[in-house]
Specification:
The complex is a heterodimer of chains A (199) and B (598). Chain A is an alpha/beta fold and 199 residues long. Chain A has one domain: TIM Barrel, CATH 3.20.20. In chain A, 54% of the residues lie in helices and 11% in strands. Chain A contains ten helices and five strands, in the order ααβαβααβααβααβα. Chain A has a five-stranded parallel β-sheet with strand order 1-2-3-4-5. Chain A is globular. By secondary structure, chain B is of the alpha+beta class. Chain B folds into four domains: 185 residues, ATP-grasp fold, A domain (Dna Ligase, domain 1), CATH 3.30.1490.20; 133 residues, ATP-grasp fold, B domain (D-amino Acid Aminotransferase, Chain A, domain 1, 2-Layer Sandwich), CATH 3.30.470; 128 residues, Phosphohistidine domain (Glucose Oxidase, domain 1); 118 residues, TIM Barrel (Alpha-Beta Barrel). In chain B, a hairpin with a 5-residue loop joins strand 20 and strand 21. The longest helix of chain B is centred in the C-terminal third of the chain and has 20 residues. Chain B is globular and about 85 Å long. Classes of the chains: A alpha/beta (199), B alpha+beta (598). At the A-B interface, helix 2, strand 1, strand 5 and helix 10 of A face strand 23, strand 24, helix 17, helix 19 and strand 25 of B. Strand 5 of chain A pairs parallel with strand 23 of chain B.
Chain lengths: 199, 598
């Protein structure tokens, strides 16, 4: 889980030409095929140094933020990302929270290890504190904030909490879309009615 | 041509002539008349009308004899169906054409060929109850290709008349409840497009699996189109995104290389029955796409114009003439299955557990079927199929339709997404896995299996009867949601389905499925080709078939995976995460062990 992955792989000299192919594909989709609705997301950015380098590398490969409307999103999945959210966000158009890795790294456990897997819970107060920090930083900066981890697909209460915290979007597994949508709408409706009743 | 009584040149026909000339011929006339200015090329020809058929069948009490023979027939009793059909066809063959009809055919034929008897024509039926929006009649009547000379044309026309009474046509009409006497037949005689030296296929102005309307789906194989229509080959497949085509961008979002192992070419003789033959396709041609990107775009443009003209989803047969290099449209009819479905309900099948995979091919439909395998070698063995069995065979043709409706699922060795088995399975709503290659060998007669089409593009046949879960929900207008709901998508092949759910776009499109399943090659192995050890080099070469070199294969496949998801949800935002493999995951790819640390 903590190996050679994400941004650190892209900027490594040994992977550079591989990453070029990936960038070429993204350019082709956005520019030649015209599918400029594609936004690009960078996973697993450990440090601000990696962050600056990967942004520069993308630009060198024809994927410059803002060009042809290109939006760059960063996965927020390492605790450092939440802790230094404001600084990371200077380079990106927003965060998509990877709650799986963020939970593992905040609680210091590896989900693949059966002995500690039970302790995995996105709703742990420490994880929620991280999430709150990240969401607030994005909102303050006027940037996109969504979540694409498994959490809100699995736990409706967690989805509700995220909505309450002001998250902009929940990215769900397709099979839970309709159900979650209806539940959240019902909830919002009920609390609106409760407010009206109270006044 | 002077106005004739029974025969008309295609250019005089239009959609108002369906009753007299049948859907196919009327549609050809409509395209020649209204769409040639828009660049639609349809080979010229002429047709006999329904009255000609009625006049013919009315001679000497033939019609009354036929109706009496069909009356009381149980279409599910396959033996009496066969003997009934054989009797009727014999009577038709023995009856000559009325004199005036024969003279008019001769005149129209001379005008079509300019007296040159070496000109090849195709002779086809166009039943007047055929191709109605609720019945595809897939391959219902006969087609005779490469017919030359008037005597041969006459024989082929007679055979077309007979085809209205082949077993499957009788069975189909009795089942669907078409009034027997109301069905008449128009026969078309059309210059043959020389795709025997080019390629041909079928295209749809929607995705035939999901019903997604923003794409043109094209299938293509070498040689005459009958091989694709019959499903005798696994064709190349292409998806073209309509909105980007309209904007003048490069709109090809996905390609799939088919095996295309055989093709139909012209035979030595010019008479019905021996005028075409099937030959093996050389390996080099199998391993490349039979259409260039330019041709794919050209075809999609034609499809779009045809759809715009008819104002509905269309099913179009096309041919690329290898002699003059032009693309011809041979047929256009309304798509009959997906366009009837409404989009706001959701039925999902899911396997609760999996077992050993015994065969895999192209998934047709989204369902899962389970039952006892019947390996059926030919039409003569069809009687062995009991209700709820899984039909396993090399390929199906229209003669199989009476038993196909009994099956829990259909599995074939050969055929692509638009083959006969696929079209009928879709129409019947039963799962089918086509083009498995070796299903008749790997599946054993009498064993219990589960056929799953619920896992995307690839359909799998599993050992044993597996437990499944079916969820269905209807949703009308969605209420206002306090947050934007987006989706996580990994498998691009499911994107056309998922876009139909209520959504604000894609919050996470993963590349890992694309790299694992559509590419399968480690990026460094693609880059270092050709300087790889011999066996690894061969593996990489094999994976990259159809593309310029392994590097462009890697880039293009990744482009296709991302573009498919982006097109499915266009213009909503699609957030694509750059590759997020860990070392151990990269290691599993072809060449991975060579490049990844332990």
């Amino acid at each position: 889980m903590l190996g050679f992955r994400g941004a650190s792989r892209y900027i490594a000299e040994s992977f550079r030409r591989c990453f070029e192919m990936e960038c070429q594909a993204m350019r082709r989709v956005r520019n030649e095929l015209g599918l400029a609705n594609v936004e690009i997301m960078v996973p697993f950015v450990r440090t601000l140094g990696e962050c600056a380098q990967v942004i520069e590398l993308l630009a060198a490969n024809g994927l410059k933020r803002g060009e042809n409307g290109l939006r760059l999103i960063m996965m927020c999945e390492v605790p450092s990302n939440a802790i230094l959210a404001e600084q990371f966000l200077e380079h990106f158009d927003g965060f998509s929270i990877g709650s799986n890795d963020l939970t593992q790294l905040t609680l210091g456990l590896d989900r693949d290890s059966g002995l500690v897997a039970d302790a995995f819970d996105e709703r742990d107060p420490a994880v929620k504190a991280m999430l709150r920090q990240a969401i607030q930083a994005c909102r303050k900066a006027g940037k996109y904030v969504g979540i694409c981890g498994q959490g809100p697909s699995d736990h409706l209460d967690f989805a509700k909490w995220l909505v309450h915290e002001g998250i902009e979007s929940l990215s769900l597994n397709p099979d839970t879309v309709v159900e979650t949508w209806l539940q959240l709408a019902r909830e919002a409706d009920a609390s609106a009615k409760a407010k009206v009743a109270a006044t | 041509m002077a106005r004739l009584k029974y025969v008309a040149n295609f250019d005089r026909l239009g959609m108002g002539d369906v009753e007299r000339f049948g859907g196919k011929n009327a549609s050809l006339g409509e395209m020649i008349g209204r769409l040639s200015k828009a660049g639609i090329r349809v080979p010229g020809g002429f047709a006999t009308d329904a009255e000609a058929y009625r006049e013919f069948i009315g001679q000497g009490g033939l019609k009354a004899r036929i109706e009496a023979r069909i009356d009381g027939l149980d279409p599910d009793d396959l033996e009496s169906l066969a003997s009934c059909g054989a009797d009727i066809r014999g009577w038709i063959e023995a009856t000559p054409f009325p004199e005036q009809l024969e003279a008019e055919i001769a005149q129209a034929y001379r005008e079509l060929t300019g007296g040159d008897d070496s000109v090849s024509v195709a002779v086809r039926s166009s039943a007047t109850a055929e191709d109605l929006p609720d019945a595809s009649f897939a391959g219902q009547q006969e087609t005779f290709l490469n017919i030359r000379g008037l005597p041969n044309v006459m024989v082929a026309l007679k055979r077309v008349f007979e085809s209205l009474y082949n077993d499957r046509a009788i069975s189909y009409r009795v089942h669907k409840g078409f009034e027997r006497s109301a069905v008449a037949l128009s026969a078309g005689v059309q210059r043959l497009a020389r795709s025997d030296r080019g390629a041909s296929g079928v295209m749809f102005t929607l995705d035939t699996e999901s019903g997604f309307r923003d794409v043109v789906f094209i299938t293509a194989s070498w040689g005459l189109g009958e091989m694709v229509v019959q499903g005798a080959v696994n064709p190349d497949e292409f998806y073209v995104h309509k909105p980007m085509l309209r904007q003048g961008k490069f709109p090809v979002i996905r390609r799939g290389l088919g095996s295309k192992s055989q093709k139909m070419v012209l035979g030595d003789q010019a008479s019905a029955g021996r005028s075409v033959r099937t030959v093996e396709v050389p390996e080099a041609d199998r391993n490349r796409f039979c259409l260039s990107d330019d041709d794919v775009v050209k075809l999609a443009r034609l499809a779009l114009r045809i759809e715009e003209h008819y104002q509905r989803p269309m099913d179009i047969e096309w041919a690329k003439d290898g002699v003059d290099g032009e693309i011809y449209i041979l047929q256009a009819r309304p798509e009959t299955v997906k366009s009837r479905k409404s989009g706001d309900s959701q039925e999902r099948y899911r396997l609760k557990r999996k077992s050993e995979i015994l065969a895999s091919g192209r998934a047709i439909g989204h369902k899962i079927g389970a039952g006892t395998v019947r390996v059926v070698k030919g039409a003569s063995e069809m009687g062995r199929v009991k209700p709820g069995d899984i039909i396993v065979t090399d390929m199906t043709d229209p003669n199989w339709e009476p038993v196909m409706k009994r099956a829990a699922a259909i599995v074939t060795n050969r055929g692509g997404r638009t083959c006969h088995a696929a079209i009928i399975a879709r129409e019947l709503g039963i799962p089918a896995v086509v083009g498995c290659g070796d299903a008749t060998a790997t599946l054993k007669d009498g064993e219990a299996c589960t056929v799953s089409c619920a896992e995307g593009d690839t359909g799998n046949v599993y050992r044993g009867i597996l437990e499944i879960e079916v969820t269905s929900r209807e949703y009308g207008e969605m209420p206002k949601c306090p947050v934007k709901i987006t989706m996580n998508i990994g498998n691009p092949h499911l994107a056309f389905d998922f876009q139909a759910l209520p959504n604000w776009g894609v919050g996470l499109a993963r590349l890992e499925f694309v790299i694992n399943n559509m590419i399968g090659v480690h990026p460094k192995a693609a880059l270092e080709y050709p300087d790889l050890p011999a066996d690894l080099k061969r593996e990489v070469e094999h994976a990259a078939r159809g593309y310029r070199d392994p590097r462009s294969f890697f880039v293009e496949k990744m482009t296709e995976g991302v573009a498919t998801i982006a097109a499915a949800f266009w213009p909503k935002p699609v957030i694509v995460r750059l590759s997020d493999f860990k070392s151990n995951e990269y290691k599993k790819l072809i060449g991975g062990a060579r490049y990844e640390p332990d």
